[in-house]
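User: Could you check the structure of this?
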Amino acid sequence: MQKLLKILKWTVIGYIVLMLGGYFFQEKMVFWQKSLPQDYQYVFKVPFKELWFEPEKNVRINALYFNTDSTKRKGIVLYFHGNADNLQRWGKHAPDFTRNGYDVLMIDYRIFGKSVGKPSEAALHSDARYVYNYARKLFPENQIIVYGRSLGTGVATKLAAENNPKMLLLETPYTSLPDVSWSHLPIFPYEKMADYTMHTDQWISKVKCPIHFFHGTEDELVPYNSSIRLATILHQNPTTILTTIAGGKHKNLSDFKAYHLALDSCLTR
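Assistant: Sure, the predicted structure tokens are below.
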């Protein structure tokens, strides 16, 4: 009996230690950013310019603006990237949009790349609003497409819910960050622990524009079922708003022809 109690005691202690560790280090688990020197020079095979936004005091948001070479510019894509690296990695995706007649504006979140400022969930959304308002000075809302990838899908969804863009495109979207954590280790009260919840499932029903998802069936980070659940919230048949990439994982959808065909279809509407 004493041995059993001892095992139980250390199991409880271990659980509490892991839970506290998860709480205090959650920002490091959410953000896998790579910083860049302020004088870093980006290199891409397509034309671009570097921009800076200062949405509030002591905050500088680094951005890249890619111009389409199309003679018939259709509008602009606001691209909110995933939770890792910086714009040097994500900029390679700009040609997917510029070749379809859209300019592309990408930002690095606070502490990513060359961006500076204290990160938080509120900051993610407020910075996105600031950039959206900048885009509205260049294009009418019916020419603005909001694109989110992974972490950025929550940012993009809330932004679209608060405005009236032409379209919302989500690559590997989640219902919420606590749901993602629970899908991997269903033992902690993530909803109560998390400073970053990003409830896409609560915001998406408020989006008024057309929505389309892209998700791989073998996604090892954000379960494919997340997109099915979001489609259910919208009372939509998943086949109508979800491009399913058979065998696709979290980071490789752009390797599949099916992804590009579906994206091109969305961008030619």
